[in-house]
Design goal:
Layout: E1 6-12, H1 22-30, H2 40-63, H3 71-88, E2 94-100, H4 107-117, E3 121-126, H5 133-146, E4 151-156, H6 161-177, E5 185-191, H7 195-199, H8 204-216, E6 224-230, H9 243-253, E7 257-261, H10 269-282, E8 289-291, H11 299-313, E9 318-321, H12 336-339
Parallel strand pairs: 1-2, 1-3, 3-4, 4-9, 5-6, 5-7, 7-8
């Protein structure tokens, strides 16, 4: 009988590993049909135009981080820590592989490496707690194009217990390390999406709200909080309020903020440049502006991932949320469990 060997596939977006990689990374991003849904004969020239126009400004931002994205290194640390956590639980027949959607190591590389390792099956674990067709959906579609391994797919885990606890732990640590300033407002900042994506049935915003509600319940009851969305690009109207608008409101209210990157599990350009440079400058008039680190390889977060792996392996092959139930409301027709 063949040995059971489980490839745990960790999905994320990817990021350029040099300044010269910025333009092709941007092209790959905007040529993704799950991000720009226009037909290919429109999407590809448009992606070429956008990547050309945004190349130099984006290079300037990546230069602030040493000329490359730290996302791969962060994900490698998570993969190594998760491998160790699984081994400690005697799940020794599992190994993590990293599948980035828009830059190296691409999904096809992860599929090839898993096959060469002798994987008999895959557990697909997106490092996006909240499902969106533009992130998890795109990654899963690409995996299906690249691999025929039998698979269990964890589509979303927006309120997984230890994931939520890790966020609350990080927020409280940040607050205490700053001297426990009075009267904070926690600003939960997530990557935005165009409104039309939500109108089309994408459950992402709903999932972000689930995460925030669960984390908020673990924080002091007298703290204020708000949800905001960042990283808007292009002319379309995006979901809001924007993080800039919420910072401006905090300035008007003379309220210090603790910014939690609630939808990002790793440090990358949206946290290290947008939150730490651009928004921090905007927030200069505030009594305080504290930025909570992304979860990274925080021990409690790695335990959360290990719990998700163990839970998923106890289920039959298929696609499921962390709870095993459909989390999306009836109107969310892009919920992956609908297709399942």
């Amino acid at each position: 009988m063949n040995e059971r060997r489980i490839a745990v596939i960790l999905f994320n977006l990817g990021g350029p590993d040099s300044l010269g990689a910025v333009r092709p990374f941007l092209f790959n991003l905007f040529n993704d049909p799950d991000i720009i849904t226009a037909p290919g004969f429109i999407r590809t020239p448009l992606a070429m135009l956008i990547s050309t126009l945004r190349d130099k400004p984006a290079q300037a931002n990546y230069a602030k981080m040493g000329g490359r994205s730290p996302l791969l290194e962060e994900t490698q640390k998570q993969a190594a820590a998760l491998d160790a956590a699984l081994a400690a639980r005697n799940i020794a027949n599992a190994k993590c592989f990293i599948a980035m959607r828009h830059w190296r190591p691409f999904t096809r590389t992860a599929a090839d490496e898993a096959a060469a390792w002798g994987a008999s099956e895959a557990l697909l674990l997106p490092l996006y707690p909240q499902f969106s067709q533009s992130t998890t959906g795109s990654s899963l579609a690409e995996w299906r194009r690249r691999s025929s391994l039998p698979a269990r797919t964890l589509c979303c885990w927006p309120a997984s217990e230890k994931f939520v606890a890790a966020h609350a732990e990080a927020i409280l640590e940040t607050w205490r390390n700053a001297g426990a300033p009075e009267n904070p407002r926690v600003l939960f900042s997530a990557h935005g999406l165009p409104e039309r994506a939500i109108a089309a049935g994408d459950p992402y915003q709903e999932h972000v709200e689930m995460t925030v509600a669960a984390v908020r319940a673990r924080l002091p009851s007298d703290w204020d909080h708000a949800i905001s969305y960042q990283s808007r690009v292009g002319p379309l109207k995006w979901i809001g309020p924007s993080t800039e608008e919420e910072i401006d409101r905090a300035i008007a209210d003379r309220r210090g903020v603790i910014v939690s990157p609630i939808a990002f599990v790793s440090e990358h350009i949206e946290t290290l440049v947008e939150l730490d440079v651009d928004y921090a400058a905007r927030a200069a008039p505030l009594p305080f502006y504290l930025r909570v680190p992304a979860l990274g390889a925080r021990a409690l977060f790695i335990e959360a991932l290990a719990d998700l792996v163990a839970l998923s392996l106890s289920r039959p092959p298929g696609i499921f949320s962390a709870s095993g139930q459909r989390l999306c409301s009836a109107g969310r027709r892009l919920c992956p469990m609908v297709a399942a």
